[in-house]
Design a protein that fits this description.
By secondary structure, the protein is α/β, with parallel strands linked by helices. The chain has helices at residues 22-33, 47-54, 83-96, 133-146, 149-168, 174-180, 183-190, 194-213, and strands at 14-18, 37-41, 59-61, 75-78, 99-102, 115-119, 122-126.
Length: 214
Amino acid sequence: MRYYPIFLDVAEKPVVVIGGGEIALRKVEGLLDAAAAVTVVSPDLHLELAALVDAGRVRHLRREYRPGDLAGSVLAFVATDDRSVNSTVAAEGRQRRVWVNAVDDTPNCDFIMPSILRRSGLIVAISTSGASPALARKIREELEGFLTEDFALLLEVAGEVRQELRDRGVTIDAETWNRALDGSLRRLLAAGRRREAREQLLKVLLEPAKAHEA
């Protein structure tokens, strides 16, 4: 396995995006969703990127990339069509130990970006290890029909119940959780019966513990 899958906490951490077009915009939007402190380096900006700068959500250096722009960053994204810029940024990244992603230029990447499906706090990342981004997108589109919004609601309820059990000092094994998170809960949530779903989940989780006590 060439790539090690990982989710990074970049909240309030400095990240630089080189480029100001539509691809850069998508990178910036994802980074802002993760609460990163984003700096964009580009002489020109997509209109939506410019709006984010005007709103104070993104720092902007209105010029071409210069060596030294990665200083202090934890990650760098290169969203230009210039392979020479990609290689220069990648070289600076290696020197400064900053991970670099150059869009559609795998040799100049320390990491690659998966195709991502989000349902609130539920995030599914799909990768083909760089072999076919188009296939990763196709798989994501097919999963979108399966992972409906009731999965996001199920995550919320499961998170609430898990915290309640922790507060009670109750530990539930993985097998019991797996059995409890069945299709009936999603059907209740899809019908708007959230409270009933929560009570059912608690009941199924606690039954083995009560039986053990008896």
